[in-house]
Specification:
Elements lengths: L1 E5 L20 E2 L2 E2 L1 H8 L7 E6 L3 H8 L8 E6 L5 H9 L7 E5 L2 E3 L3 H11 L3 E7 L7 E5 L5 E6 L10 E9 L15 H11 L4 E5 L4 E3 L3 H12 L17 E2 L4 E2 L4 E2 L3 E3 L4 E2 L4 E2 L3 E3 L4 E2 L4 E3 L2 E2 L4 E2 L4 E3 L2 E2 L4 E2 L4 E2 L4 E2 L4 E2 L6
Helix pairs in contact: 3-5
Bound molecules: guanosine-5'-diphosphate-alpha-D-mannose (GDD) and magnesium ion.
Guanosine-5'-diphosphate-alpha-D-mannose binds next to strand 4, helix 3 and strand 11.
Length: about 350
């Protein structure tokens, strides 16, 4: 069985982070995001190949995953000539595949048991099975109404407030039968959410819902991107390299250098090659990336700092996201919710 990860979007809502780092590989702690999806897929032993459906900056993604050696599953890349939308991308990537497919939106983090979803799909002889998750406000998602038999009764992408009739939304995880893909028009942009799913309902085909109440988040905005780190710090989602670590004390990678006189407040994470100098404070919910230097008396709290950024002496960074290779001068103040792109340079004493 094969899986397709839709990872071709531009990640506009995560700009400027995604200018040089496409959304599927933004770091979550010390790993590119798609690693977490691959971990989830590996729970289904039948899956022997993961197809990454790409469009935006495909090279950068291929550089990280190669042919999959190191992830434990074979990886293949399909690059659309132009963005084909979620439906067009699936059809394009599924050429020549006749077997049942697992499809993920390439920006959702979930603890769903994919094997159980596959099993339900087969038991029901479904054409499509979709994972749903309850959220407080469905407006930013695909609203999905289900019937008493657990099938999908209505699919409405990005509902307006007066169209919201329930709290279950499309979690972006599907099991699909490729013999239905002939209805997806070829070579033009086509949305699976606005076209294909409503068409299954209209035609009365077996379209099954799997409601999952476990962890779920779409990492597509800076708020959600920060939230996923908080959730992992707090143990609401368990995965990745320090899944088993004690989060009640700071997590410091073996090759990080924390000088005497630096203070680390749990939970926080300092990656290999990072340096935290004397007098610096790393406050709770901070992630200090590989090779980051936090100079003397600098103060970082609740912030995600990507690799190779330097934070100058006496600078303060609070609840911000700083991308790679930034240079924050001495005594700078980077305020809450700031999102700085790669190579941002702040002159000494700057305030954001
Ligand atoms: N290959 C390819 N080509 N991938 C694409 C394209 C494309 O043209 N357009 C979008 N994608 C990928 C994105 O990279 C992302 O991983 C996924 O498809 C979904 O696109 P988003 O742009 O993130 O959509 P959304 O978050 O607004 O809504 C979708 O996800 C929600 C759950 O997070 C919809 O599927 C909603 O129904 C769903 O509730
Ligand atoms: Mg999304």
């Amino acid at each position: 069985m094969k899986a397709i990860l839709l990872a071709g979007g531009k990640g506009t809502r995560l700009r400027p982070l995604t200018i040089h780092t496409p959304k599927p590989i933004v770091p979550i702690f010390d790993r590119a995001f798609l690693h977490y999806q691959i971990d989830l897929l590996k729970q289904v032993p039948e899956i022997d190949e993961v197809i990454l459906s790409l469009n935006y900056q495909p090279r950068r993604i291929e550089e990280i995953f190669g042919d999959g050696t190191g992830t434990g599953v074979r990886i293949r890349y399909v690059v659309e000539p132009a963005p084909l939308g979620t439906g067009g991308a699936i059809r394009f990537a599924a050429q020549g595949i006749t077997d049942t497919l697992v499809v993920f939106n390439g920006d959702v983090m979930s603890s769903v048991d994919v094997q159980r979803v596959v099993d339900l799909h087969r038991e029901r002889g479904a054409k499509a099975t979709i994972v749903l998750t309850p959220v407080a406000n469905p407006a930013a998602y695909g609203l999905v109404e289900t019937g008493p038999d657990g099938s999908v009764r209505r699919f409405l992408e990005k509902p307006t407030p007066d169209q919201i009739t329930c709290d279950t939304i499309n979690a972006g995880i599907y099991i699909l039968e490729p013999d239905t893909f002939d209805r997806i028009p070829k070579d033009v942009a086509y949305s699976i959410e606005r076209g294909y799913f409503p068409s299954l309902v209209e035609r009365g085909e077996t379209f099954v819902a799997y409601i999952d109440r476990g962890y779920w988040i779409d990492i597509g905005t800076p708020e959600k991107y920060v939230q996923v780190h908080r959730d992992m710090f707090d143990g609401r989602f368990i995965g990745g390299t320090f899944a088993g670590a004690d989060r009640s004390t700071p997590i410091v990678a073996p090759e990080a250098r924390v000088e005497d006189g630096a203070r680390l407040e749990a939970p926080c994470f300092v990656d290999n090659g990072a340096q935290v100098k004397a007098g610096a404070v790393i406050g709770a919910y901070s992630v200090i990336g590989r090779g980051v230097v936090v100079e003397e008396d600098a103060h970082v709290s609740g912030s995600i700092i990507w690799p190779n950024t330097r934070i100058g002496q006496h600078a303060t960074v609070d609840s911000a996201i700083l991308a790679r290779n930034c240079h924050i001068g001495r005594h700078c103040v980077v305020r809450a919710d700031a999102v700085l792109g790669d190579k941002t340079v702040l002159t000494d004493y700057s305030k954001t």
